[in-house]
Design goal:
mainly alpha, 3 helices, flat
Amino acid sequence: VRSARGWQRRARERVGELGGRYRAAVAGPGGAEALEHLRDLAKRGNLTLLTATKRAEISEATVLAELLRS
């Protein structure tokens, strides 16, 4: 149980790191254009973002959804 708690704590700490790296990647070459394309698609109807993780809080799809809403 102790190691599981430690892993969960480290995972929460890395969420911010993951989000920051993903936001930096989107800000890079082609990222802004791709984000704008996704925003255009979302304006036309539902846009479904998929992820392989069971924990949405550590998913790049969650970060992308936040970027699309901003």
